[in-house]
Amino acid sequence: MSAVTSDPPRTAARQAIRQMPVSLLVVLGLIVLLLAIGVIASPRFASLNNFRNIFQQSAALGFVSLGQTIVVLTGGIDLSVGAMISLTSNFTSGWIDGDPNMVVPVVVGVIALGAAIGCVNGALSHYLRVHPLIVTLGMAAILQGCTLLYSLAPVGKVTDDFEAFAYGRIFGLSYGGLAMLALFALVGVFLHRTRTGNAIYVVGGDARGARLLGISVAWTMMLAYAMSGACAALTAVYLVSRMGSGDPWRGDGFDLASITPVVVGGTALSGGRGGPLGTLLGVYLISLLNNILNFMDVSTFYQWIVQGLIIITAVAIHVEKGRRA
Amino acid sequence: MIVEAKAISKSFPGVRSLDRVDFSVSAGEVRALVGENGAGKSTLIKIISGAYVPDEGELHFDGGNVKWSSPHEAQAAGIHVIYQELVLFPEMTVAQNIFVNRQPRNSLRMIDYRAMKTRAKALLGDLGALIDVNEKIKRLSVANRQMVEIARALDSDAKLIVFDEPTAVLGGHEVELLFAIIRGLKQRGVAIVFISHRLDEIFEIADSATVLKDGKLVGSVPIAAVDRNKLVAMMIGRNLADIYPPKAQEGEVGEVVVDAKDIVVGARVKGVSFEARKGEVLGVAGMVGAGRTELAHAVFGSLPLDCGSIRLVGQAVPKPSPTRSIAAGLGFLTEDRKGEGLFMLLDLAANVTAPVLETVGESIWLDRGAEKDIAQKQIRDYAIAATGPQASVANLSGGNQQKVLLGRWVISSRTALILDEPTRGVDVGAKVEIYRIIRQLARRGLAIIVISSELPEIVGLCDRVVVLCEGRKTGELAGQEVTENAVLQLAVAGRDAMSAGRSA
Questions:
Q1: Domain assignment of residue A157, given as a range
Q2: How many A-B residue pairs are in contact by the CB < 8 A criterion?
């Protein structure tokens, strides 16, 4: 039995550190380690410009992983984010097609579309009781099919203003990277400080218990997958702004890529534990790693192999922890 | 009356769980709800708390007629159930768990953690529980987890709190603490429903008791108006004295069937010899860890024999294995009912005939008709409370599941049957049935070996008892010598001798 602690009022920062899970400290340690390796590997690594680049390059992975985090917190998984990015990227450039007046409606439209499709994912997996793995895998095939029916090649073009999302900078920091940070903060507050956000953890912890306590599991699941869909669409918008147009295979590889930072950041695949802070550190860790591998002239194929190893290792470490606890 | 249920009925596929049951509790009353497993207690609780919708009958709560559409609706109205499996989230803190979905919020509708912790501390303080509200649930003891659930119920102004076997997971001191809290709740005017299999507790804490049997109401009585025997008689519908069947008569016991000599299994069994005879029930008694289960496994061949010899029906078994033992007509019902292989997804008939598939029909196709006949005979012979061979095994109570397993072994055992804790987790009524079946099998000429931790069972059921202590046989009792006291003495004898030896 633990005694009531007569604790003095803690500062928020001290409390945050005290409650920070060990896994986050491990990720921080790995980031420091990678920084050291980077300095040794290349003289050009440790430059302000390079760090600004990493900050910029992490945006796409950050958006999509943030959505994935929310879904994984419910105990689910979203394997349709890649196809979702492909679909919405081509819609974005195809529908804007160089018309400045179309930018706002199209961006709002594709994000809403992403949310709606995500909502369907959540509803299907809840009401049909089909594991989200299968639902979202099926949805991925459907979305990819739709993408290719719409166009077999990149279509349309974007306006110059639109490219600012990817290339614009303030104090040398890219808008995209800042937007990603802001969104992480927003989602963090949502999950931590609202009942609805809290419900995502509760459902991920024990869906039966959540229902007994009056939480609508259906609504919570739909919300989580809708947020993931919206995040994937936002990723597509960002990528279109960076590349100048969409591509029917733009999202290829993002399913796995979006899960890696989540599990590296300590969010449990079983749900109910973890959060955006860990994923953010995971995103920077992966971005840093890819950056260093680029400096070392390691081929992209090796980067894939490394990514595969990382995801398996990260999950294995957490499973082991679970057994000991 | 806080809650009044009138003529409630509820059926499930294959089982009529409640049959026109009346039930009520008043403010400040502790009402014990008693009955065997499968009597309908859980169903009644789930109907009162909105988890099930009754087929028939009326539910009144706080003066009005109610029809709950969800457990949450009942909860919001003030009905809380503290289930044995607590509804807690291990990764969240104590405070977060108390206020799930009801967190205090500030003017911006953001969760106010400071207010939440202050209120959590106050609630737990009221209960006299010393629990850090920032601690994660997974780091708390079971007793403290229960406190957290009680605190959650209090915060939402519970008018009725149902405790579903709360003491099953608690130690003695913790039970006392819980009772102190229940008395406190009672004084605040909260109505309490208390479910427990331990009669002592019911007499200590309850004001009145409602007894259910087979889904029917036996009666509701003030606790002062009954004694232990009366209550048990109400629960099982017969007197305590009729629980055990008469023992073996002279002449009914025949030749030695199982002859085990100097059995050694690792460090758990250190040279035990015993014999079991045709027509008798041999008990193997001892404390937990005395080596009873290991001895049984060694005889059956499911644990390797380090030393010693075994003869079955006069034949030496050089290297015992389950296959050889089954071929020799030996059966073994282990203490692990689930792992033993009840196929929860299959129906009763398939479960009963699982180990004797080759006898069900001649061709490679299963003879469903023959399967059904065997199952029907089992249901009749063993009084299994199921609607028929097609009944789902998962819907049966623990006692009835055990009878299904017992039936399975009876079909394949011809010479001897070892039963490890045959009545664990089984209610009184099913126990009586199982004892009757065991004795009937002995009469039929089997040697029965019963391992049990329950002294009354050893004494009431067995003709002869072998007592183990720390891997050694400390004695053997027969006939009139078999008393609880004598068995207990032998069960701790070796231990005392050893500790005496050590201190000397």
A1: 46-324
A2: 85
Give the pLDDT mean for A121-150: 96
B106 and B54 co-located in one domain? yes
Domain boundaries, position B384? 341-412
| Chain B touched by A205 (CB under 8 Å) | yes
**Are residues B183 and B227 both part of a single domain?**
yes
Q: Which of B46, B52, B96, B101 to mutate to test the interface with A (most CBs of A within 10 A)?
A: B101
CATH number at residue A261: 1.10.3470
Reduced to 3 states, what is the DSSP secondary structure of residue A324? helix
Q: Are residues B84 and B184 part of one domain? A: yes
Give the closest-approach CA distance of B95 to chain A in angstroms. 13
A5 domain-assigned? no
Contact B89 A273 (CB under 8 A): no
CB within 8 Å: B100 and A213: yes
Query: What order of strands is seen across the sheet that includes strand B464-469?
Result: B330-333, B416-420, B447-451, B281-285, B464-469, B472-478
Report ipTM (2 d.p.): 0.85
Taking only residues 248 to 277 of chain A, the set having a beta carbon closer than 8 angstroms to any beta carbon of chain B reads 272-273
Residue A37 in domain: no
Contact residues for B47 (Cβ-Cβ < 8 A; gap 6+): B5, B8, B10, B18, B53, B54, B59
Angle at B403 between CA B167 and CA B294, to 5 degrees: 75
What does the pLDDT read at residue A16?
Answer: 57
Residue B246 in any domain: the answer is no
Number of other CB atoms surrounding residue B4 within 10 Å: 18
**If 0-12 CB within 10 Å is exposed, 13-18 middle and 19+ buried, where does residue B7 land?**
middle
Provide the pLDDT for residue A132: 96
Q: What is the pLDDT of residue B411?
A: 75
pLDDT for position B251: 82
Residue A322: what pLDDT? 44
Q: Are residues B397 and B417 in the same domain?
A: no
Report the alpha-carbon distance of residue B281 to residue B244 in Å, rounded.
12
CB A83 within 8 A of CB A252: no
Chain B residues with CB-CB distance to A73 below 8 A: none
Averaged over successive runs of 10 residues, the pLDDT of chain B (504 residues) comes to: 92 86 95 86 93 94 91 91 89 94 93 95 90 93 90 90 86 85 93 88 94 91 89 76 81 90 91 94 88 91 90 87 85 74 74 62 64 79 76 77 80 85 78 87 92 85 93 91 86 60 41
Q: How far is CA B390 from CA A252, B12, B85, B380, B410, in A?
A: 50, 14, 30, 14, 20
Whether residue B72 is contained in a domain is answered as yes
A8: DSSP letter: P
Q: CA B405, CA A104: separation in Å to the nearest integer?
A: 69
Q: Do A195 and B105 touch (CB under 8 A)?
A: yes
Residue A195: list chain B partners with CB under 8 A: 101, 103, 105, 111
Nearest to A195 among B103, B135, B144 (CB): B103
Evaluate whether residue B60 is within a structural domain: yes
